[in-house]
Amino acid sequence: MQELPLIPGFLARYIERWAVKRLPDTDYQATIVRQRLYILPTRQGLLFTTVLGTILLGAINYENSLTYMLCFLFASIGFLGMIYTHQNLNHLRLGAASAKAVFAGQAAQFPLSISSVKQHSHYNIRIQCKATDAICAHLEDTETESLLMLPVTTKRRGYIQLGRIKIYTEFPFGLFHAWCWVELNAQAVVYPEPDAHPPQYTHGGRQHGHQMTQQEGYDDFAGIRKYRKGDAPNHLAWKAIARTGDLQTKQFYAEAADEIWLDWHQLADDMDVEKRLSVLCRWILDADKQGIKFGLIIPGKNISPGTGRQHRHVCLKALALFGIEA
After folding, report:
1. What's the whole-model pTM score?
2. Which of 187, 166, 188 is nearest to 177 (CA)?
3. Which of 312, 242, 326, 314 is nearest to 282 (CA)?
4. What is the dihedral of CA 129, 130, 133, 137, to 10 degrees?
5. What is the pLDDT of residue 239?
6. SS3 category, 160
């Protein structure tokens, strides 16, 4: 995360811990107020102050009124810059929503909304979460809201919280660094990382692994059956639905084949938990890609066979939260 200017790392961490104690309770929205805004000069600001001091010493030494005027003019510009930098963050409202599920190692994209309580313009606003690059946002006074995505790197499966983020700006002159810490209540599910080379899966004499082969006759029409929850929308038999008024689904030969179970206990006994979850994750993705109806068996949970995006999410989420949920 962006360090505080001209402040040693250990002191910056102490300031952050002190400031976090003053944060309001975590919510989906937060409004920045001046009581929780902080501002410090940047290196450029310190250099600017040094130059002003040198000009002032010259004016005093030579008793030159024009030099005094130049010094006071630049000082006034500096003070105005400080006020504008501070006000550029004041009265900003931030909102967050939960991100879509991702696999471990990918970046979760959290939707953020920025709006102004006072309907003022806010320029060059930087938003950053720990261990990620800052994103930039602008808000014109004619805009009611600005939407952007904040990437947060994931390392392990389970839930990831958006947590504390830093909002800062150095607009307009870069002489001052104004910032605020905000905690927003948003989270995302992180699936296990799919195994790149999983062991083969055996079912009914057919082998399925990382290169799980498509069953013969998958594209051949096998008939129509009643709709079941989880059936792919593109398999709906619209002509039959229009004729009978009942939801019906086209069936193909591959779907008519026996369903498969992706079973935790079929993996080697010496395989650790994370490796098992990674392999099962890959099997789920392969089966879903090929339209195979599959169920999942893991310790403490059995998920009935099904197909479709929602069924895949339920299975992957069960892997993501294995051993984590109470």
Report:
1. 0.75
2. 166
3. 312
4. 20
5. 80
6. strand
